[in-house]
Write a structure and sequence with these properties.
Blueprint (H helix, E strand, L loop, with lengths): L2 H6 L2 H34 L6 H4 L5 E8 L5 E3 L4 E2 L8 E7 L5 H16 L7 E7 L5 H7 L7 E4 L5 H5 L13 E4 L4 E6 L5 H14 L4
Parallel strand pairs: 4-5, 5-6
Antiparallel strand pairs: 1-8, 2-3, 2-6, 4-7, 7-8
Helix pairs in contact: 4-7
Protein name: Thioredoxin domain-containing protein
Pfam family, one: SCO1-SenC
Organism: hydrothermal vent metagenome
Length: about 210
């Protein structure tokens, strides 16, 4: 064995080489994991962060998020309904009148298409509509034939109108807006009337990717 081979095979050299290899491995792991850790941190600590500077979201982030109270709703068939029955899913919600003019009809279509567009993640999303009145309930039911898995809530009880005020945010009109409720039951994002469905979809895809809840 030559002198060089003896030096290269020494325990000290082997230990140093292993140490350097482990260091490189740890650095690579940190670089890989860090973006995911940061994404989770920014999502779950958004109340303390100016997300307008940190993200490119299209929707308006609600700060702080609003934990929605429970309420004894009735669905369009007058059966009892609780928002907690959808807990664990992302909810796309719209609010409108039973006459459901063009903006209302557009929102029904947008919400349906967004859920379809997320592919295999569609099971993580629920669709919800709050009616502001029941004047044209028969015609609204006819419209729902194109949206069979849309949960529709009708006005019920004196507290219903007050409940809808939970969705008032800044100067945005709640009628014909689209709202996002997270899997923990928090109202956390809103889109105004006429919002671009393709841009809403990008936000939803980003939320589904970052969040492992729901």
């Amino acid at each position: 064995m030559t002198e060089n081979q003896t030096v290269n095979n020494s325990p000290e050299i082997a230990a140093e080489t292993k140490k350097k290899s482990n260091t490189v491995l740890w650095v690579m792991m940190v670089l890989f994991v860090l973006p995911y850790v940061a994404a989770f941190y920014f999502y779950f600590n958004r109340d303390q962060l100016d997300l307008g500077l940190l993200t490119s979201n299209y929707g308006t982030i609600v700060t702080p998020v609003r934990q929605l109270p429970e309420y004894d709703f009735k669905n369009i068939d007058s059966a009892a309904f609780k928002l907690s029955s959808l807990k664990g899913r992302w909810i796309l919600l719209s609010i409108g009148s039973s006459s459901c003019q063009q903006d209302c009809a557009d929102n029904l279509y947008k919400i349906r298409q967004i859920k379809k567009a997320v592919g295999q993640e569609y099971k993580r999303i629920s669709k919800l509509f709050f009616l502001m009145d029941q004047k044209n309930i028969a015609s609204f039911k006819t419209r729902l034939k194109d949206y069979p898995d849309m949960d529709v809530i009708i006005p019920s009880g004196e507290g219903y109108e007050a409940y809808l005020s939970n969705f008032s945010y800044k100067d945005m009109n709640i009628e014909d807006s689209i709202f996002v409720i997270d899997p923990l039951g928090n109202f956390m994002m809103v889109y105004p009337k006429g919002a671009d469905a393709s841009k809403i979809l990008k936000d939803i895809e980003r939320l589904l990717e970052v969040s492992k809840i729901g």
